[in-house]
Amino acid sequence: MNMQFLQPLMLWSLLLLPLMACAYVWLLKRKRKQVVSFSAVSWILQNIKTPSAWRRHVPPVLVFVAMALLLFASARPMARVTLPADYMTLIMAMDVSRSMLAEDVDPSRIKAAQKAAKDFLQDLPSNIRVGIVSFAGNAQVVQHVTSQREELVDAIDRFQLQRGTATGSGLLMALATLRPEAKLDLEKVLYPNGSASSTDGYAGGIGNSGRSLGAPPPEKERAPEPPGSYTGGAIVLLTDGRRTAGPDPLWAAQKAADLGVRVYTVGFGTPNGFIPGYEGYSFFTQVDEESLKAVAKITEAEYFKAGSADDLKKIYQHLSNQFTLEKRDTEITALLAGAALLMLLLALVLSSIWFRMGDAVAMKNFRSAQPQKTL
């Protein structure tokens, strides 16, 4: 378990534990010496049944462990634990390029993706809100964030296939939808030539704006957040092809990582994806797995490969579990303090049961052994 401490210097207090153990051993030896000097007490110890050795040591050991927990808790440890997810937002970014017409997945990629996405929405817990972004040659929000599953299903049914695959644009649009407070300048990034219909500025190595693919327009500096630290939501990006337009998806992934947002990527389709005779042309469509793996790695998320409708359904089911339970760094000081308190109470109860009753029996036997006075 990866554990961190808010007050690591307090760990030095654990050095008190060996001193406590030595003090306990010293008290035991001192007690034996004192018992020898009192004949009455010696007689009691010799003539009555005293608690066994392990019983005598159990309460002190419990106190010792409780003190160890309290000293350890004073350093305020934090551990990564799995907890039920809080109210969160999920943005689904889905590829609607014409390559989704390929029939290597029955009945077609787009039909299988739509069905799996709708089943996924129905399985999500009610505390998760969802927004939907579609992308082809550009990106658009087809359904703003909502908790109404019917509106989301209707938005998926309205998908219209278009030319191009702007994976980076879809990711940036999803990011802006998830974290509107970041105020991403999408117009400047997605349409560098000032035209909403132009994405040529990022289609090649150098666009008309004179900037390279990996160097979009400068933005106001924002302190980056640790990758994967944002717990308010995540992005699921599904695509079946390679980027042909828009900004570099790896650059977009770095923007997501700087905002702490995880981007789970799904590559959909088989290596034999083929669209025969579409508009007079036939062409193969293959997933750019390397880019999708890199996007997931940059944002500390996961990449999934789906070669069939069943694969895609299983991936969505896995993601549903991911968003129901999440891992987060949580301070466990209160948990340790509670455990220490329980041990102290247990030590007190055991001492009362084992030793007070033993003392009462010992005194009773001692009195009965004394010579009775005669009148």
Q: How many structural domains in the coordinates?
A: 2
Order of helices and strands: EHHHEEHEEHHHEHEEEHEHEH
Q: What do we call the CATH homologous superfamily of the largest domain?
A: von Willebrand factor, type A domain
Gross geometry: elongated
**Range of strand content:** 15-25%
Q: Compute the gyration radius: what is it?
A: 34 Å
Structural class: alpha/beta
For the record, the CATH class of the largest domain is Alpha Beta
Largest sheet at a glance?
6 strands, mixed
Would you give an account of this structure?
- It is a single chain.
- The chain has 375 residues and is an alpha/beta fold.
- It has 2 domains: 91 residues, no CATH class; 248 residues, von Willebrand factor, type A domain (Rossmann fold).
- 44% of the residues lie in helices and 18% in strands.
- It contains 11 helices and 11 strands.
- The strands form 3 sheets. It has a 6-stranded mixed β-sheet with strand order 5-4-3-6-7-10, sandwiched between helices.
- Helix 4 links the parallel strand 3 and strand 4.
- Helix 2 crosses helix 11 and helix 4 packs antiparallel against helix 5.
- The longest helix is centred in the last third of the chain and has 37 residues.
- It is elongated.
- About 5% of the residues have low confidence.
